[in-house]
Amino acid sequence: MWRAWCLTAAWLVWGAAAAAAEPPRPVRAGAAAVDISPRDLPVNMPGGFAENIAEKVHDPLHARALILDDGTTRLALVVVDNVGVGQETAEEIKSLASRRCGIVPERILLSATHSHSCPPANVVDGPPAEVAYRKILIEGTAEAIARAAGRPPPGAGGGGAEPPPPPGGKRPAV
Ligand SMILES: [Zn+2]
């Protein structure tokens, strides 16, 4: 038992010395926000017990991406204004973003604000405006990741990205 403790202590001392000897690696960061407001209205805004129809966009909805890169690992932290993004939709976003900027899907963390004032993210068979919105959300979120990574898609121009907006209520008007 004593021998195991000595070996463990020696390993910890060696590890600490090795870590102290490494020069600190700078971490580079990039950020972008893309407007993912619905273009086809009206749409239902799920999250409550009753239908909640939006007739127009009161405040824009956004996908916001932050890229961190220490020279060895590059990862993306992404948040979208939505009540919830399903697994299939999330995987489509990650796959599209990965093809555009090279960050592997396993290093893209996607979350949602849980806003009840957004169209549904996951409708593949239903009202045309809601099916169309899923594509806007996938395309816009992948674009936010690619732009934050400094690699906008070819021919994208500069029209879609904007500085991240301040946090606040996102509510298409009813
Ligand atoms: Zn809720």
Characterize the structure shown.
This protein has helices spanning 2-21, 87-101, 128-148, and strands at residues 28-35, 43-44, 53-54, 62-69, 74-80, 108-112, 161-162. The protein is an alpha+beta fold. It starts with a helix and ends in a 12-residue tail after the last strand. The structure holds zinc ion. The site of zinc ion (ZN) has 3 residues, from loops. Zinc ion binds at residues 47, 114, 116.
Quick structural gist:
It is built from three helices and seven strands; from the N terminus they run αβββββαβαβ.
Write the SSE topology.
Layout: H1 2-21, E1 28-35, E2 43-44, E3 53-54, E4 62-69, E5 74-80, H2 87-101, E6 108-112, H3 128-148, E7 161-162
Parallel strand pairs: 5-6
Antiparallel strand pairs: 1-4, 1-7, 2-3, 4-5
What descriptors fit this protein?
alpha+beta, five-stranded mixed beta sheet, two-stranded antiparallel ribbon, 20% strand
Question: Strands of the biggest beta sheet: in what spatial order?
Answer: 6-5-4-1-7
Reported for the largest beta sheet, the result is: 5 strands, mixed
Strands, total number: 7
Low-confidence stretches: 153-164
Q: Which percent range describes the beta-strand content?
A: 15-25%
Mean pLDDT: 85
Shape: elongated
Number of helices, where a helix is a run of at least 4 consecutive DSSP H or I residues: 3
